[in-house]
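As a warm-up, study this chain.
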Amino acid sequence: MLKRTVLFILLSAGFYGMKAQQTIPFRITKHNNIIVKTLVNNKDSLDLMFQIAMKEYSISPDSKRKADHIVFNKEELSDHNTVQIGKITQKNARFFDNQLTGHEADGKIGTGIFEGKAFKIDYDNNQFVIYDKMPDLKDYQPINIILDHDSFYLAADNILDGNQQQEAYFVLQSGFSGAILYSNEFAEEKHLEKKLKVTGEKTLKNSEGKTLTTKQAVLPYFKLGKSVFKDVSAGYFSGELKTQNVSYLGADMLRRFIWIFDAERKMAYIKPSKYFSEPYYKMN
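Now compare it with the structure written out below.
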């Protein structure tokens, strides 16, 4: 009788552990963006790009699939929508209209689906995992994060020349396909034009003749936690029009790790994914 009771408890614990997490499948495009299939208001089937730097949803003006059952007001907002992703249903979801998104996407999905829960971005198995309790963190290293206006910030070291490390804060930006994009302030203060080898650039002009130049360069070393990357593809802006106020840790760098975020959004835990040593994405 005792053995049966113990067995029942163990089986019940295992069953509870299975129920304590949910998964959301996704696919990764050749541009490193995560695409999630969704059903909105039980009518509109949409492919939405995961944007870790936002909480809500949005529809792109270039959407290939119709979103006829999302009704927007004059402020281009739509509330009280129902979003179904696999077996997960979120009610009272807010959508923004006319926001640009990544390739192959009809809009964007933010982190609101994970509200109040720990979650994992599992690039090895192409899925999100939502946890009621923190999972086993063996082999993961902790990274402090700061959540500000729905954006996740973390600190990393940049070695521009010699052995001198320059710490900078980066916003996790899964919508940016590249590895690193520096803020205007960092680029100017650290004299990136003089210190980094430029591999490509493109100049644009507005109607007033003012220029914006995007430059792709090679960063000798980049250090995130205990992981060190060599000859990293990094971008920055120069010219008269410079609007990059924060530095980005883009999708090409995000995919190199499996990420677990705690429910309080104070810590991230990372370990190398199958993409850790892949060649860097080439920005056009």
